[in-house]
Design a protein that fits this description.
It is a single chain. The chain has two domains: about 15-65, no CATH class; about 85-180, Immunoglobulin-like. Helix content is about 20%, strand content about 30%. The protein is built from three helices and seven strands. The chain has helices at about 15-35, 45-55, 60-65; strands at about 85-95, 100-110, 110-120, 135-140, 145-155, 155-165, 175-180. Strand 5 (about 145-155) and strand 6 form a beta hairpin. The protein is extended and about 55 Å long.
Length: about 200
């Protein structure tokens, strides 16, 4: 094999898989047509029903359906552009054992960055690690695309940033924000190894 010849990657495929893939592509295309310009997601009771029917973890069902949204993803190769202004907001709410604070919105030419601080209010926050499986929903007549833009946490405190495209208006009348459950199937749970035995040298 010369440097110019592509390497043959070992792979298995058959007519049965081809037929299933063909049906999947056709159905995904039909499904995405229904969701153009709107949020189109099944209620929790259907997710639970399908999870049981197909013996599949409910978060995997949710992940598959979330990724069928036609307008879910965007790509800004050169970033959101220049920073134009900062909108102070200070919306605060408590849910469960956590306090959520939407502090401000950074307005760029092509998008808006929203930061949400999260504080654990329960006991012993220093030994708590927040796992923030959350996505922002922008509720408005205008359709917005939202992606996670970074997060950080430790010791009972964390924050999440979201990129919203197109940029939000400076006047937010009629626009509401909600955090909804999201799924990170690409993350992993670290295995805890406790070292508590005497070691002699």
């Amino acid at each position: 094999m010369s440097w110019t010849d592509p390497r043959i990657i070992p792979n298995e495929y058959n007519d049965e898989a081809k037929e299933i893939d063909h049906q999947l592509i056709r159905l995904i295309k039909e499904r995405r047509k229904l969701s153009i310009g709107k949020r189109f997601f099944p209620p929790e009771k259907y997710l639970e029903q399908w999870s049981e029917e197909f013996s599949m973890d409910i978060d995997k069902v949710r992940f598959i359906l979330q990724n069928l949204e036609e307008n879910r993803y965007y790509y800004l190769p050169d970033g959101p552009g220049a920073l134009k202004s900062v909108i102070p907001l200070m919306k605060k709410t408590v849910s469960g054992e956590c306090e959520y604070t939407l502090t401000h919105i950074m307005q760029y030419e092509l998008g808006s960055v929203i930061k949400i601080d999260i504080k654990y209010l329960g006991e012993n926050p220093d030994v708590v690690m927040l796992k923030m499986n959350l996505m922002l929903e922008v509720i408005s007549e205008q359709i917005y695309q939202v992606n996670r833009n970074g997060s950080h946490g430790g010791g009972g405190y964390g924050y999440i940033e979201f990129m919203v495209v197109p940029a939000l208006p400076d006047q937010l009348k009629g626009i509401e924000f909600s955090l909804v459950r999201s799924v990170d199937l690409f993350g992993y749970e670290p295995r805890e190894v406790i070292l508590n035995q005497q070691v002699d040298f």
